[in-house]
């Protein structure tokens, strides 16, 4: 039987899921069952549309649902879909707290359904190569990325630019960087988080984030990302001399080696439908959720003084000149901005993650 797949959240990033759905339907892998969105979206001929996911579930009973709504809305929709007997492709970040993670994991177990999380870069053959080449390493793992998002990015949706709805450079657009770093540092158990969050504009969350995690074994993961850069750094995961540019699957295993594109990405939806072991099962995102929850619970980000900023050459907002070099410097040295000569930097927020994890473990045992 060809599985019928529905999409909840068919605007925004849902458009890329619509492309995948059309492609897989064209190849006879699935049938597009229905779309749902709170707002009107471009209709798809022959595909029923609903403005409430509960109506969709009742009317269509799809075998699989893709959930691509804002992060703070994921849990109730996911629970309803599981209760209706559907497998899930749930966009990242899957949920906003470890408590929600435990509730969703329990529902997945009890329903016997499968839940794949939208960390598509985990399906990359290049990541597999990097992990194989660095297995057993105790060297620090780092991630660096520098993108540009104009002010209009934060006006596209009511939840954008608000920490209360789980937006922020590292918990949303650069969530993949954190997730990739955690996977490369296989078995990493964070016990300490040191975090510096900054904003270059009037938003209620960060657009420049610097994070150092220390693991139970003393290993560190450092992640430095920005959305206020004129110069583009796609996203680099580094262990020793090995570097993976995770959005493009380009890999370099030695300092003098050239970057090589490693083809072979398994699509998350195809993987889910195939019945094979999941690439990004919910349980694999637990440590990510520990860290993401702690990031969002941190005090509001510091504002970078306007005098440090300059206009983006194409308009649309301001950039922090040289921030692409700063993210690479932090990744290379493991020193946060406040620990180097950055005048606008403020002391990091330090929090034990052991305690958060212990509380959640205890809660999970009581379920
Ligand atoms: N995997 C990736 O690379 C990637 C890239 C971008 C976004 N995302 C994730 O996709 C999700 C959506 O992000 P976005 O940027 O597209 O957001 P968005 O706000 O631009 O779009 C979300 C869509 O969901 C709809 N929606 C909101 N609440 C709904 C509800 N309760 N029921 C039905 N529809 C609802 C909105 O009307 C909108 O069309 C987030 O979890 C985000 O992190 C993942």
UniProtKB/TrEMBL annotation:
<feature type="domain" description="Gfo/Idh/MocA-like oxidoreductase N-terminal">
    <location>
        <begin position="4"/>
        <end position="119"/>
    </location>
</feature>
<dbReference type="InterPro" id="IPR050463">
    <property type="entry name" value="Gfo/Idh/MocA_oxidrdct_glycsds"/>
</dbReference>
<dbReference type="GO" id="GO:0016491">
    <property type="term" value="F:oxidoreductase activity"/>
</dbReference>
<dbReference type="GO" id="GO:0000166">
    <property type="term" value="F:nucleotide binding"/>
</dbReference>
<keyword id="KW-0560">Oxidoreductase</keyword>
<dbReference type="Pfam" id="PF01408">
    <property type="entry name" value="GFO_IDH_MocA"/>
</dbReference>
<dbReference type="InterPro" id="IPR000683">
    <property type="entry name" value="Gfo/Idh/MocA-like_OxRdtase_N"/>
</dbReference>
<protein>
    <submittedName>
        <fullName>Predicted dehydrogenase</fullName>
    </submittedName>
</protein>
<dbReference type="InterPro" id="IPR036291">
    <property type="entry name" value="NAD(P)-bd_dom_sf"/>
</dbReference>
């Amino acid at each position: 039987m060809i599985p019928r797949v529905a999409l909840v959240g068919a605007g925004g990033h849902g458009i890329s899921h619509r492309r995948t759905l059309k492609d897989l339907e064209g190849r006879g892998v699935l049938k597009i069952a229905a779309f749902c969105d709170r707002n009107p979206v471009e209709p798809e001929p022959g595909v029923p549309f609903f403005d409430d996911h509960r109506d969709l579930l009742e009317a269509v009973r799809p075998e699989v649902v893709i959930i691509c709504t804002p992060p703070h809305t994921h849990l109730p929709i996911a629970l309803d879909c599981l209760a209706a007997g559907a497998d899930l492709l749930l966009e990242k970040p899957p949920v906003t707290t470890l408590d929600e993670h435990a509730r969703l994991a329990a529902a997945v177990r009890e329903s016997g359904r499968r839940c794949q999380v939208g960390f598509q870069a985990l399906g990359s053959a290049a990541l597999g190569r990097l992990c194989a080449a660095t297995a057993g390493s105790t060297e620090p793992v780092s991630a660096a990325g520098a993108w540009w998002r104009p002010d209009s990015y934060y006006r596209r949706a009511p939840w954008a630019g608000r920490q209360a709805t789980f937006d922020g450079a590292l918990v949303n657009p650069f969530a993949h960087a954190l997730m990739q770093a955690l996977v490369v540092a296989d078995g990493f158990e964070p016990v300490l988080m040191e975090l510096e969050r900054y904003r270059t504009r009037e938003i209620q969350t960060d657009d420049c984030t610097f994070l150092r995690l220390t693991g139970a074994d003393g290993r560190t993961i450092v992640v430095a990302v920005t959305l206020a850069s004129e110069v583009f750094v796609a996203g680099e995961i580094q262990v020793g001399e090995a570097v993976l540019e995770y959005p493009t699957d380009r890999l370099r295993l030695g300092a003098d080696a050239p970057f090589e594109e490693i083809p072979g990405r398994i699509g998350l939806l195809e993987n889910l439908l195939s019945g094979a072991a999941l690439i990004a099962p919910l349980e694999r995102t637990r440590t990510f959720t520990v860290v993401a929850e702690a990031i969002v619970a941190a005090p509001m980000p510091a504002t970078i003084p306007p005098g440090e900023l300059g206009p983006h050459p194409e308009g649309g907002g301001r950039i922090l000149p040289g921030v692409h070099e700063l993210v690479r410097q932090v990744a290379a040295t493991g020193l946060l901005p406040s620990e180097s000569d950055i005048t606008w930097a403020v002391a990091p927020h330090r929090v034990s993650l052991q305690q958060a994890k212990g509380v959640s473990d205890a809660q999970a045992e009581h379920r």
